[in-house]
Amino acid sequence: MAGPLLAGRVPDWVDLRAFATTDELMALAPLAEVGWFDLHKVAPMAKAIGLATRLRWLNSVYAGVDAFPLEVLAARGVVLTNGVGINAITIAEYVVMGMLTIAKGYREVVRAQDREEWLIDSPGKRELHGSRALILGAGEIGGRVARMLAGFDVDVTMVRRSPAAGCIGPDAWRARLGEFDWVIIAVPATPETQGLIGADAIAAMKPGAVVINVARGSVIDQDALIAALDAGRLGGAFLDVCTPEPLPAGHPLWRARNAHVTMHLSGRAQDRMFARAVDRFLVNLDRWRRGEAVAPAVDLALGY
């Protein structure tokens, strides 16, 4: 997708080689000093990276880097830049859409229209105004969500490694889970965040609270979440991510009470992803040529 957008825009010192098939990527990878090897399937992408022994800088449109062989890249001294922030606008909009959908019971309105049934009352009666939201992850997505929710008069608390105004540290949020109407998860996918929201955390949430997850399905104990939803302890869950993906037919999450499964579409709900990624890549090419740092560079030890 990026190749046609780069054609005619790269500087003269760059020998641009584009691939259209996986086989073409495998042939080109050993030649590349700067690479952009994004594929939908993890295994062939990892194989191409393994073949790229001359690689010095690897770029990707993907924000999550859990599919990349980070140890291999670190051992070879390869710089990895990812797509963090590229899709932040649309993902943040998706979060707000999910909150409003659940608050107003909008899914039931759509279903009533499909039945040609005129409702006489709203199936959802929540207001965002005056509610309280906890955002786990103070990165580009979390920050945008917070700014958008300010316009709805939502009281937002963010969690980040180093406390700042309106934020709390990574050890403080669990004790306060019962205070929030919305728990929004936007953390990076790392071994540290796997299972971050377990059964105890779900049990500690305010009755009727809504969970919004735009991180990774592995961040949540999905079985405990389904049980809490079906028991009516939680007010709903808006899950752009789940485990596994794709979610198989018959999985209990499909029919969990007030669970909204949006099939990892939040980042795709726009048409500017590759245009933004290409613009960023071209800026980074100039920096690379001048010996300056390219950004955003992934900390290969931390995994984000």
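Next protein, fold it too.
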Amino acid sequence: MKDKIIEKAGEMFLKLGFKSITMDDIAGEMCISKKTIYKYFCNKEILVEESVQLLHKEVHQLIDNAISKNYNAIEENFEIRRMFVELFKSSDTSPIFQLKKHYPEIYKNTLKFQIEECEFCFRQNIQKGIEQKLYRNDLNVEAYVKFYYYLIFNINENTASESEAKQLEYEALEYHTRAMATTEGIIELEKQLKIH
């Protein structure tokens, strides 16, 4: 039951916001008593924290799935972005923006995971792109990892509207890819822009 509550709460938090959803809302949606929820979670903050941890696992799995498909580096970035859009499609407001605003302590703990996970993913993608001759081989990989990380997370931290954040992320992906791409990489980028 605990896992079902975490899963349902996570869905509702993403769809309607971390602040607006109450324990009553979750109980009503699941057709259980609020007492049942409090049996596993002494307060909403703990439920939010566990929901965010579950979301981390889903994000990690999503990235692993995209990488396992052996796309080229540019195609892989667009596929990961597409999967993220799908995962957060029902959100009206950016989940990261909401966490930062309403649950700063959970946000701070979440940030450490995000930094490690994203920097690892970005670094791996850049190295793959260099090997595939889609990205220039003279890149300062660590600098480009940081540039892209700061771009993406500043968008998510400071943009309340999820649809606006998605559009800006798409622009950031194109900007990031163009900055690194070889001539062959630009051809692949243009192809992906037409598809997506």
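About the second fold: The mean pLDDT is 89.
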